[in-house]
Amino acid sequence: MERERLENEYQDLLAKIAYYKEILGDERRLLAVIKEELDVIADKYGEDRKTSFSYDDILDAEDLIADDDVVITSTSLGYIKRMSPENFRQQNRGGKGIKGMQTIEKDYIEDLFMTTNHHYIMFFTNMGRVFRIKGYEIPEASRTARGTALVNLLPLQEGEKVNASLCLRDPKDEQDLILTTKSGMVKKTALSEYANVRRNGLIAISLKEDDQLIEAKLLSKDENIILVTKKGMAIQFNEKDVRRTGRSSMGVIGIRLNDGDEVIGMQESSQGENMLVVSEKGYGKLTEKSAFKAQNRGGKGMRCYKITEKTGDLVGFKLCDQDREILLITTEGIMIRMSLENISIIGRNASGVKLMNLDKDGDTTIASVAKVRESEGDGEEDLETDPGEDADTEIAEINEEDTKENQEE
């Protein structure tokens, strides 16, 4: 009774076998069958995804970046980079240092400071404008790399360059900001007025035609301010002598300058017990801060350094304790780290000692000086690391030459 059904099933199986053999024997036919089957699946199940993959709403891109300590360096021609502090180690006074940045002709490192990836960095330009970015937004580079041009990070105008930088965690703090210009003007403004810095910057201070903004600092209450000029004059006055003004005001006179003189820096009295001054030809000294009596702003100040042909004009000064360490940077990008314990404390009207050997027949001079800051929590210095075996060999040779020269002197 089932014979006819079985014969039909048998013929059907033979036809399927022949069909499958035909597919397996022809690659083009096989791909065509696969395409047909995928089209059927797509028509049957081809619906848009109803879920999406994304970051958690409470997770920001900044949360994926470690809040590590970093060293930021910038040059006079506007190159900036972010480095790990594991690039420098301590050397003795009078050495020649290690290469800190590869600069182009007529360029040199102008600013160096320690911060973290998550700190805000406010950039104040010579034209009196202010910009703000996070530390991690500055591209990281090696110790000898030139870095990234600031014009790629900030919308700077022609002829505009960054002259001062400020690191802070919260721009809405109830603190005052004090600004200083090359001609001796000072201005105190509430930091909260700079809380909303636009991408194209804000006016930080109004300037005269021939003046430039050179320094910006956060100000503590009842703090004394010290200004130093390149011709060796210094003045100390209380911040209460400077009235608070608006963001776009010009400020008041901090120090009256002689012809050809200009302000090279500003420090707060609480930043250290001694004044370190460094000349362009590698000389410097420490003087007790108490040697400079506080006076009213607007005076000519007191002599703080004896300028000679051998020393050249002053290029930088810092207030610091004698147990701290400093970095000196030359116009060729050479850096040297030294302890202030090796520098004697002497009077106001002296020229000091040689801090760094410079080529007497060359054009290399000291460009700037920076303090080495201590890490929070562990009490260790940030920059006390080993740059490598080759650098150790070079430093050992330099220190041996320095010891011989000091013995001869």
UniProtKB/TrEMBL annotation:
Acidic residues bias: start-end ranges: 377-403
GO terms under cellular component: cytoplasm; DNA topoisomerase type II (double strand cut, ATP-hydrolyzing) complex
Q: Which UniProt keywords apply?
A: DNA-binding, Isomerase, Topoisomerase
Q: What is its EC number?
A: 5.99.1.3
Region described as Disordered: spans on this chain = 371-409
One of the entry's Gene Ontology molecular-function terms is:
DNA binding
Q: Which reaction does it catalyse?
A: ATP-dependent breakage, passage and rejoining of double-stranded DNA
Q: Which GO terms describe its biological process?
A: DNA topological change
Protein name per UniProt: DNA gyrase C-terminal domain, beta-propeller
Instruction: Name the source organism.
Output: Oribacterium sinus F0268
